[in-house]
Write a structure and sequence with these properties.
Elements (H helix, E strand, L loop, with lengths): L1 E3 L17 E3 L6 H14 L7 E3 L9 E3 L5 E3 L1 E3 L8
EC number: 2.7.1.21
Protein name: Thymidine kinase
Family: Belongs to the thymidine kinase family.
């Protein structure tokens, strides 16, 4: 499994800056668990967190990322990442 955190140039307005995490790997390799770890940590530390998935992913729920053990986390399902607005 690979974990990739791309470098994003800082914006002038630090209140709208953030990080993008991309997790890749074969099925059942733990990508969702790896992805949710920093999301839970940041949310617990009081930061605003947005989880986005493709609207094509309708395996378990339209508005949630679901782990294989049934644990759900709310997200936005978007057809195009550019449609996301803070």
């Amino acid at each position: 499994m690979a974990f990739f955190k791309p470098s994003i140039p800082p914006t002038r307005d630090s209140s709208t800056s953030g990080e993008v995490y991309v997790t890749m790997g074969p099925m059942f390799a733990g990508q969702t668990t790896t992805l949710l770890r920093p999301i839970k940590l940041e949310g617990n530390n009081g930061r605003n967190v947005a989880m986005i998935k493709s609207s094509k992913d309708m395996r378990y729920a339209i508005d949630s990322v679901v782990m294989h053990d049934g644990v759900k986390f709310s997200c936005w399902a978007l057809s195009d990442l550019s449609s996301f607005r803070v």
